[in-house]
Design a protein that fits this description.
- There is one protein chain.
- By secondary structure, this protein is of the alpha+beta class.
- It has 6 helices and 4 strands, in the order ααβαββαβαα.
- The protein has a 4-stranded antiparallel sheet.
- Strand 2 and strand 3 form a beta hairpin.
- Helix 3 packs across helix 4.
Length: about 180
């Protein structure tokens, strides 16, 4: 089978040469026209709304702050999911948009919908949507680290192994 291919190529040198030229030219065209990204952004288009309300328990924040924000933003166009997390003194609402949505368009829609509910939120709460996800893409999520301080070595000695509070602070500052 392979010998027949070799014989055919030897008999039809011009066709083989033209086919090779065609493949090389199509490869050059593909390199210039197809967008190539070494590290594609696989993260969601997400807008985070943080609402601090100091001194309030999570149940009250959930009822008076988080729930109205979530129900309002569920009606926004191109929203794939709305998730919320309420803790003591804070409310976080994560609005995840469809993949083809432009981030700046998504932020402006969130601001639009937040303007609709500012009168329904309690006095003293100021939602802010300044935090977004483009600074932390899918690749960045793989590059997180944790510094653990061991209680076995409470002080830093020259011959001790481990990370104490001073060394962990130095290591963290070096990693920035």
């Amino acid at each position: 089978m392979i010998s027949q291919w070799i014989e055919w190529c030897a008999r039809n040198r011009f066709l083989v040469f033209m086919g090779t030229i065609l493949l090389v030219l199509s490869g050059i065209w593909a390199l210039r026209h197809i967008p190539l990204d070494a590290l594609p952004d696989i993260s969601d288009v997400e807008v985070i709304i943080h609402t601090p309300w100091a001194g309030q328990p999570p149940s009250i924040i959930e009822d008076q702050v988080t729930y109205p924000i979530v129900t309002t933003l569920l009606a926004a166009p191109h929203v794939k999911a709305v998730r919320a997390q309420t803790m003591f003194g804070d409310s976080y609402v994560f609005v995840i948009f469809e993949d083809t949505t432009d981030l700046y368009w998504a932020r402006s829609r969130v601001l639009e919908y937040m303007q609709q509910i500012t009168g329904r939120l309690p006095a003293g709460t100021h939602p802010s949507s300044g935090r977004t996800r483009p600074a932390q893409d899918g690749f960045m999520n793989m590059c997180l680290w944790t510094i653990a301080i061991s209680a076995v070595w409470p002080t830093c000695g020259a011959f001790k192994i481990g990370i104490c509070a001073t060394n962990s602070k130095l290591f963290q500052e070096w990693r920035r």
